Each structure stands twice: as C-alpha cells, then as structure tokens.
Amino acid sequence: MSDPSSINGGCAVAMVGKDCIAIACDLRLGNQSLSLANNFEKVFPFGDKTFLGLTGLASDVLTLKEDFRLKHNLYKLREEREIEPETLANLVSSSLYERRFGPYFVGPIVAGLHSKTNKPFICGFDLIGCIDFAKDFIVSGTASDQLYGMCESLYEPDLEPEDLFETISQALLNAVDRDALSGWGAVVYIVTKDKVVKRVLRTRQD
Amino acid sequence: MAGLSFDNYQRNQYICAKGHAQPKATSTGTTIVGCKFNGGVVIAADTRATAGNIVADKNCEKLHRLAPRIWCAGAGTAADTEMVTQLIALNLELHGMWNDRQPRVITALTMLKQHLFKYQGHLGAYLICAGVDPTGAHLMSVQAHGSTDIGEYQSLGSGSLAAMAVLETKWKPNMTRDEAVLLCAEAIESGIWNDLGSGSNVDVCVMEVGKDAELLRNYLTPNVRAPKERSYKFPRGTTAILRESIREIVDVEETVIEFNKPEAMEVDA
Amino acid sequence: MTTIASEYGNENNSVPIEHRFNPYSDNGGTVLGIAGEDFAILAGDTRIVSGYNIDSRYEPKVFDVGDNIVMTANGFAADGAALIDRFKSAFKWYKFDNNNKKLTIQSAARYIQHLLYGKRFFPFYVSTLIAGLDEEGKGAVYSYDPVGSYEREQCRAGGAAASLIMPFLDNQVNFKNQFEPGSDGRVKKPLRYLSLEEVLALVRDAFTSATERHIQVGDGLEVLIVTKDGIKKVYYPLKRD
C-alpha cells in the first residue's frame, strides 16, 4: 500500500458523448488512510476546450500541472494559437517518456474538443507515457478497477451532454464509494462546442 | 535537453526503498508473429494491452511503421516498443535521405539491437521486424537485451507458445501470400483464445517485394461485444449537484469602422 | 549474495533469494449473489486459470449443496472444492443425526463460519457466498471473508473482478447515489425488490462487462436460481479471449 501512486489516493475519468466530452475527478487528498483535504482538484484546463486530468502521487500531480502550464504557455507564444488535445497528448507522452528511468508517479488523462472541428478526443497514459487511445472512456487512479467496471456497464455511445453528465457522474460516484482512497467530493466538466459546464457533486463524506 | 532524464531516479529509489514495487506500466501481454512467403513477408499481432489483470486497451496498435516498407510488431513494455520504434523510424528516414537509398531491414535491425543492447535490457522491447528492400524480403526478431534471430517464421510475446504451436504444425516452405496471411492470422487467434495476455482483434501487415506495404488493421474481429441486456441511461436529474458554473465560449470578431477618413493627399508628379 | 536481475528500481537492493513452498495459488474467476423478494441467485463464471493459462473453460463452481441452498467458494480452486466437500459431508451427518431435519440457511451460514474459522491459521484462500431462502421465504445471500467473518446482504460480488462488479451492484440493486429527478438531490430513489428477469439481466451485463476488462473472467456464466420450487440452473456463453 506504500506504492507511490497510491499514497495520496484519487481518481479521474473521461467519456465521449455526441459532439461533447466529459471529464471528472474526485477531490480527496490523503496520506495513506488519513484524509487531509477535500478540495484537491485533479482536472486542469489547457485552453478553452482541452482538459488534463492527473492522478497519482500528489507532489508529482502539482509538479506536472505547473510543468505543462509552462509548456502550454510557451506553445501559445510560439504558435499564437491554442493547443489541440491531440498535440497536448503527444506533449504529455514525450514529457513522461523523457523520464523513462525515473518516472513521475502519475496516471494522466486528456480530454477535449478540436478547436476548429469540435471533434471529441480522449486518451489516457501510463506513468511512462504510453498512450491509450480510446473511443469510449478512459479511467485512472486508485479507483481505476471500480471505474472500469462502472464505465464498461453504464457507458453507451452518442449520449447528449445532459445524459453524459448523469452517466459519468454515476460511474464516478459509485466507483469512489468502493475505494477507500478516493471520494470526499467530485467535480465534473461537460464540454460542448460553445459551453463548458462545471458541476460539483454531492457525495458521501466517509 | 536531449536524451533521457534521470533527475527523479534517486528520489524514486528513496520512495521505493520504503515501500514495495514500482507502479506497473502498461505491458502488451501480446501475441505477435511473422512469416515469410514467396515474394514477401507478413507480420501480425493481437490488439490487447494489459495493466496487471486489467485490460487497459481493447484495440491498441502493435504494428509499427519503421519505414514505408519495413514494419515491426512489438511485445513487452508498451511505451518502450512505441518509443524505440519511433526513434528508429526517425533515424532510418534520415539514414535513407543521407545515403539516397531505400532503407534496408538489416539496417533497421542493427539500429534496434545496438540501441537495445546499449540499454542492457532495461528497455523492455521485444520486436519482430520485417520488410522488403532492394535485397528482397526479410523477417527478423530482436529481444530486449539486443540479441537477434532470423527465420522463416517467428513468434514473440506471452502468447508466443500458442502461436508457435500453430506455426510449427501448419507452416510449409514456399507459401503464397494468402496462405501466409491466413497462417499468421490463425497463429494470432491461437494466442487470443489460449493466452490471457492476448485478446480482441487481429492486425496484419503484408509486405510484398516491389509493392507498397499493406496494413490490414483489424483483419479479424472475432471478439465483438454482444449487445447489453438493457440500457443504463439515467433519467436527467438523478445525480445530486451542489454547485454549477458555466463558461460560455464565444468568438469575438473585431471589425474596424473608420469615419471621415481623409482622402489621400494628391501629390503632383 | 545474489542480485535479483529485475527492475532497475530494485537493482541496488541485493538480497539473498529465499526459496519457500507456497501452498496457495490464484485460479481467478468471479462470483456474484443477489437476493430477490422470493428468490435468490448465485452466479459464477466457469473459467479456471493459472498464470496466463486457461486450465478449464467449463468447471462449474456454484453448487447445489442440499435443502435449497447454493454455495460457491471462489479464489484458490482447491480450497474452494475442499470447503464445499466439507460442507456437503457435514450436511449429510446433520440429516443423519437429526431425523432428516431441514437445514435452514442461517444455520448453514453459521456452520460455514466455523468451517472457515477452524482453519484460522492456515485459511481456505476463498471468498465464499451462499444463497437460498430464509424462514419467511425471502431471498437471502450470505458472504464471508477467508476466515469466516460473515454477513447477510442483498447482493455481493466475490473473486477476481469483484472490484469491477460491486460498485455496479450498489448502483443498480441498492440504487446508491441515485435521487428522484426534480427533487434537487433530496429524495433518494426508493428501494424496491427486483424481479427475477431484472436480476438476470443485471447479472449477465455485470459478467459481460467484467469479461471485457478482466483477463481472468470469461468462457461461460452459470447461474443457479433458488425459488420455493427448487433450484434451476442456467448457462450463458461468455467471450473466450
């Protein structure tokens, strides 16, 4: 249990809907079984319609969040445009593989819409940057087993944004309730071509 | 900047010294095979990627392009097979441009084995490398430590025994293209059914002398999920929400309208 | 001193290799029990694995142990079989000694606790489930840890893919985290007994989902249905990859 990627706990999940995507995470930060904070968000925006979820060792989550913020800013200065989700995915992958023999203990996920075509894109990574391109959903974190079970049974393709919200929320909520290291609140982002809705969910507090 | 960074190595040693193992990287449990035929070579792979006992990706791509007519099937640590393959593909492209020649399979193999040997097996890449070049069709394999093999038919990965069982019973010399494709697909299927590390679909890549390589992505799909008994769509409003914030994304268009623009001054020539 | 040639992360930790007989192994598989109003079911996949190998594609592990009680013990297959054998044998003696008295499910449940705790310091490496009808005729499922701590529940998943299936059951059987639409998250979705058809649909979807994402689950799904009229067995094929 003192595996570095499950010291602090926490999980994240992303799903594709009809012309939309959703990305969600829990809010817990803990030290082993001792919960420390209920406001530790693990999903970060990169531009208008692209999001990066980071689970794992909290210090690495924060380090990488800042590292990618820096790289994103440099990208914007050089290219004078927003980063596409596919591009961010490759940036994450090569940044993680650079540390092949001394990795960050994280499980990142990327979700977003293409800035021009609004085509949905999601993907996940292992800690050394192997990309998992999926058409349906991506899970990560200490509740990943539970999330796989929930998503595999609840998910169906082409859900409208409001239905996708219910599906991803129920998947996350019921998964974290069966994981001792996740929970303590949750946030969900629903991203459509002209709107980003952020919802904070009511969850169990144990 | 260039090369790999070992900045976190000591830190991780310290963290792991107190705890147990490193977190698991996705490995492509995998069955991969290759087989030569009259006038070409074919390689094939399954499409399951695992993290422990969990299927991380049901339809991943294990066939990598090193050059337009040299392809490579990868088993082992997924990130290593992907990255080592991309690196060699890049160097092969440069090598081809510098020498103004089409890259050869033996060149790809040599670059791969020298790279892998340099890393003393720490890059967990097990590859079947095949292709056609001006010297004909070739089929070779590389192990993570840098040793290589050449043969008429090969298999690698956790399903290699299941696949080799098929190859050993059904392989014969001087096969046609179609026979070779069928044999490889059957060998992969043997891995899919009988090895837990392998599953889902069969990808095939055919390389024929004098022709473009042909990637048959999802050549067989024997594992389509049956429809569910019912839909699990929830009525809207089922989930309890504490707060909501909405960010509208609007395009701001700017048009400059100028009033009383003075006429350009006339200048006498 | 020998250096274990493995992950770079451990390369400095030179430790002598310890050789020891390991009496346990993991044979994979998953089981699931749900209690209805006047029925109960116990379901299990029929695959037996060792390592990356499939040892059997059809090895039933849910058994009718008599007096309308069904039982399964999932985990280390040899221990599972041994536990069920011990229960069946004890069941015969109970009938013989007590003038064929019917064994109630709560008595069976308590007896299994003693079978498991009897091996407290060399446990049966299994998660055990039994299902049947209680004295009022209502469906009952009892679940155990390897050393005999037990509890009566509406539903329980056990084995390799338990972590995948259990949250789904919380959500779809006990309606956890579901609220009445329009109630602003204040009124819980009311609990109700599921019909046998609904339960079978849930079980099949739970197992097809587990088959997709867990490599040790697959091949076949065998469900034993307990009603007052006796025990019915149904079989559904699962994916074999």
UniProtKB/TrEMBL annotation, chain A:
Keywords: Cytoplasm, Nucleus, Proteasome. PANTHER family: METALLOPROTEASE TLDD, PROTEASOME SUBUNIT BETA TYPE-3. Component of the proteasome complex. It holds the Pfam family Proteasome. GO terms for biological process: proteasomal ubiquitin-independent protein catabolic process; proteasome-mediated ubiquitin-dependent protein catabolic process. GO terms for cellular component: cytoplasm; nucleus; proteasome core complex, beta-subunit complex. Component of the proteasome, a multicatalytic proteinase complex which is characterized by its ability to cleave peptides with Arg, Phe, Tyr, Leu, and Glu adjacent to the leaving group at neutral or slightly basic pH. The proteasome has an ATP-dependent proteolytic activity. It is found in: Cytoplasm; Nucleus. Gene3D superfamilies: Glutamine Phosphoribosylpyrophosphate, subunit 1, domain 1. Belongs to the peptidase T1B family. Coiled coil: none annotated. InterPro entries: Ntn_hydrolases_N, Proteasome_beta_3, Proteasome_bsu_CS, Proteasome_sua/b, Proteasome_suB-type. The keyword Transferase does not apply. The keyword Membrane does not apply. This is Proteasome subunit beta.
From TrEMBL, chain B:
GO terms for cellular component: cytoplasm; nucleus; proteasome core complex, beta-subunit complex. GO terms for biological process: proteasomal ubiquitin-independent protein catabolic process; proteasome-mediated ubiquitin-dependent protein catabolic process. Its EC number is 3.4.25.1. GO terms for molecular function: threonine-type endopeptidase activity. It is found in: Nucleus. Its main location: nucleus. Gene3D superfamilies: Glutamine Phosphoribosylpyrophosphate, subunit 1, domain 1. PROSITE patterns: PROTEASOME_BETA_2. It catalyses: Cleavage of peptide bonds with very broad specificity. Keywords: Cytoplasm, Hydrolase, Nucleus, Protease, Proteasome, Threonine protease. Residues 222-257 form the Proteasome beta subunit C-terminal domain. The active site is at 30 (nucleophile). PANTHER family: METALLOPROTEASE TLDD (PTHR32194), PROTEASOME SUBUNIT BETA TYPE-7 (PTHR32194:SF4). The 26S proteasome consists of a 20S proteasome core and two 19S regulatory subunits. The 20S proteasome core is composed of 28 subunits that are arranged in four stacked rings, resulting in a barrel-shaped structure. The two end rings are each formed by seven alpha subunits, and the two central rings are each formed by seven beta subunits. The catalytic chamber with the active sites is on the inside of the barrel. This is proteasome endopeptidase complex.
UniProtKB/TrEMBL annotation, chain C:
Its main location: cytoplasm. Component of the proteasome complex. GO terms for cellular component: cytoplasm; nucleus; proteasome core complex, beta-subunit complex. It is found in: Cytoplasm; Nucleus. It comes from Australozyma saopauloensis. InterPro entries: Ntn_hydrolases_N, Proteasome_bsu_CS, Proteasome_sua/b, Proteasome_suB-type. The keyword Magnesium does not apply. GO terms for biological process: proteasomal ubiquitin-independent protein catabolic process; proteasome-mediated ubiquitin-dependent protein catabolic process. The keyword Electron transport does not apply. This is Proteasome subunit beta. It comes from the Eukaryota.
